[in-house]
Amino acid sequence: MYFNGKTILITGASSGIGKELTKQLSKLNCTLHILARRNDLLDNLKNKLAQTNHNIYTYKCDITNKEDIQNTFEQIFSVNSNIDIAILNAGTSFRSDITKFNSDEAHNVFKVNVMGIVYCVEQLVPKMIERKTGTIVGVSSLADSRGFAKSGVYCASKAAATRFLESLRVELSGFGIKVLTVKPGFVRTAMTDKNKFKMPLLMDADKAVKIILNGIKKGKRIIQFPLPTVFGSKLIGALPVWLYDFFAEKSKIK
User: Fold this and answer.
1) How confident is the model at residue 1 (pLDDT cuts 50, 70, 90)?
2) Cα dihedral sign for 18, 85, 113, 141?
3) Has this prediction a pTM greater than 0.85?
4) What letter does residue 142 receive in the DSSP assignment?
5) N or C: which end of the chain has fewer CB atoms below 10 A?
């Protein structure tokens, strides 16, 4: 019943976790505003879910483009004056050997994983402060714990997202606004399908989304899963630098 009557925004809704969030939330009595760059995929998703939920609005939007974000939010607020829950899920990854390092790719990862959240927050916060209510859910990753070989850019972007969301949580609590950080382990999506290394405890998106929605319902500050990976990431994060470097250099995931 928690999501009934709520107006919910989801970024990165055309695939992966965002798509599954849309599918599961469409079964509830809520209004959905879903964003992605691939509008054709959004429209296909909307059409498939039409019998379940007629209150789904799609927007072609590049979250790395501040002007595009501003225009999209103007459209959203013309339909619904307020957003109750904003799930800022859009993300991308970049994994490459340092001998092939490309700063353009790194720039894109930070634009999507960090600035995409920042631009959306800029539009959301004024109205939420005015209402003194609202929930912002940002999707980070358990990879924020250390800088893993070949994934340094991705890890750094997720660490930045985690810290930004943490600061928001502290600042906005006095205004009655909740900020939740989602930190998944490996989830089966098009993004992880590109990985050529073994991904322990790889989880299907439908199961991951059930955990996320349950965490939102409970108002958990940090929604992280699966438990063994959470424990492992905390352990790795607590290692002294010399010990982490020793194990990282020995690791086959390079």
Assistant:
1) confident
2) negative
3) yes
4) G
5) N
